[in-house]
Amino acid sequence: EGTTTLAYEDERLPDRPTAVTDAQGATRRFEWNALGQLAAETDCSERRTTYAHDARGHLASVTNALGETTRTPHDVMGRRQSTQLPDGSHWHHHHDAQGRPVEQEGPQGYRQQRFYDEYGRPEQRIDADGSHTTLAYDEAGRLGELTLGNGAVYRFAYDVMDRLVGETGPDGREQRYAYDAAGQLIERTEVNRAGPDGRPLVTRYEYDANGRLIARHLPETDAAPATTEHYHWRADGQLAGVENAHGEVMFVFDKAGRPSGEQQRHAGLEGDSGWSWQHQHTLTATGAPQASQFGDLPELSWLTYGSGHLHGLLASELGLEIALEPDALHRETRRRFHLSAPDANGSPQPLILERGYTALGQIAQLSLSSTGGAQAEQHYQYDALGRMTFRTQQGQGQASTIAYRYDPAGRLIASQHGDHAHRYPMDAAGNRLEAQPGNPPAPNSSNQLSQLDGSRYRHDGAGNLIEREAPDGERLTLGYDGANRLVRLTHTSAYGHTREAHYRYDALGRRIGKTVRHANGTTATHHYSWDGDRLVHEETEHQRTTVVYEPGSFVPMLCIDEAASGQEMERHLSAYVTDALGTPLRLVTPQGETLWHAQPHDWAAVTHEQGTTAQPIRFQGQWHDEESGLYYNRHRYYDPQQGRYISQDPIGLVGGDNLYQYAAAPNIEVDPLGLRGYMVLGVGLIVNRTWLGEQQPVKSQRVRL
């Protein structure tokens, strides 16, 4: 759809484009130096970014449209020597004679070192806290062992084709892999987790002639029957749909072949006819959002400018308009909610959210106001390493301050909430430790928690949490399917009352339903619907909730509630007010009425909830389950009591060295998918942890050093 036009007007450099006009008519202009290097770029809003190079042609500095400059001097070999960020902080990068990164120094004494063996392979990393991570190789040069700073050891085995055929974790979990003649994975065996027949669980995979996965066969477990997930493909190689025993998903594509929606069907329960839902997006020629429709709700129109920058949302049939005001870097600075229905004086009453940024792009302040005056304010401070050190908030006639403290490696180890101090002892792998009076806590070399704060934990052979018991006798008992997904849960209170829950997933691993049987014998069924990896809709017998997120983000923006009132469904709108991390702290109507609010919590996201409605969203991508206290987090479940996941990372060491870790510092990192944590830079903007000038990590096999 549409045409992109390139202009070449520099006679010195006829192969360098000087202007690019996209299909929407937005034009970017480019300037080049005599060596053909980019010297300046001006976007469609006349925002100019300049690039300076040294005498050898290496990038020396970048200055953005706000005049903020990042400097990157290089040596004669083209290796970056240092990074000076716009706030004045410096990072120094050191290399050996072969040009490999060997040391990085940063503010506040930060220092990380890397060492290599005689063959140039990564051998050891010394982190800022002094802990050592080491790698050992077999005779064929393949990674054989990874040892973390707390003594945890991962071991790997290979076949003669150098394919990974076995791995053993620090907790003793052993997995084996088998391949076909084409090198495709066809079996994965959980050696230490047995099915009802007493044999290890085996997952099998099938492929078509083009090497595309067409079926995954999951084994029977004590909590779930054997099942098969099917995958269907289009002629152009895109996934067309998936199905399993719980339902099916069909993907919708526009004329340009771009994914634009889903049709989701859930299989019926106990004789009912099932449940269905769909969503549809319309994209501009450049791929920016233009319109969205969720289920039976009226269409939402996205307002964008230039190359797709968002500046508003129009919901005419809902009587709502949201207007966004950007700064020179196209970051949102103000959000205004307008209702088309006027107040008693005949004029609209806008609800206004404002935000400001630091020189590094972090949120410095957030405020909420209406025609009645300011209702809430948040202020943030950061150290030279970009870590949040203080946050204050005011609202509802209250004010609070939180101070944070980190260890040299950046792990959150303490906080001060007013008069209340919290300590989080950790080992070098990020495991929470039990404080021992008079003695330092011992490292946890298995990376599994057996007890914390008086609660006891038990895991199965695949590392899944199967029992949690609190000091007062409260107990959770959990069961998993062949993909290590939680499918059954029993909660027993300290008084002996029980609740049971059963969970269902589609063939993409997204939770699409749960049924909770309460202690009084009543049963409630919840249906969930998705927009890609974002949970956007929850429906029960008497309630529907649809969440509209900021485009390309897991930060919630708008809540649309529908409640049964006789034969009709009454519709109510409210806006999310989040903190710098994207965690909702307040739910407010466009008229300024607070429906729900809470205080921030280090590991549980929020605490001290108050209001007239429930609000289940916690950290980005998390959905609170009332029956267990756990947070569903797309691929896994998060336990706020432990501050970690209850099962191991399905992507293994690609997600980090500790397979249970949520984040090293949950006040500055998020993990919306339940796979890997990232730092947050500005509300909703997720960046790699290396954003503070760190060089790209060295990779070895499946491990990051």
Automatic annotation (TrEMBL):
Residues 355-649 form the Teneurin-like YD-shell domain. This is RHS repeat protein. Keywords: Repeat. It comes from the Bacteria. Pfam families: RHS_repeat (PF05593), TEN_YD-shell (PF25023). The keyword Lipid biosynthesis does not apply. Residues 444-453 have a biased composition (Polar residues). The lineage of its organism: Bacteria, Pseudomonadati, Pseudomonadota, Gammaproteobacteria, Oceanospirillales. Residues 79-107, 430-456 are annotated as: Disordered.
